[in-house]
What does this fold into?
Amino acid sequence: MKFQPIVPMIWTNKLQETVDFYCDFLGFSCGNFSEEWGWAAVSKDQCELMIAEPNEHTPFERPYFSGTFYIKTDDVDALWNQIKDKVKIAYDIEDFDWGMREFAIYDNNSYMIQFGQDLLR
It folds into this structure.
């Protein structure tokens, strides 16, 4: 039995706005979009994310997630410089003792996304 990569699905009441955020600010591409289904899939390189409007099986009042989405990148400084003035920052870029250089932002729904680069390579 082989597991495939995890593909997070975030819930939102702002489907198009959320797709636009990931595509316009983070360089994702929208591969699938269905207003009828209230669902979209965006991806960049090996990173994929599904975006969905809540349905009758989904108790939903506002966006929530008890953790963060952590995306590893090979040039965290370039990404930081590209988006830092365009998005809401959770924390600025810095080097951490555990060997990662990272920063975090909030998307248009207030989900936190961290971006990190391994310093030990």
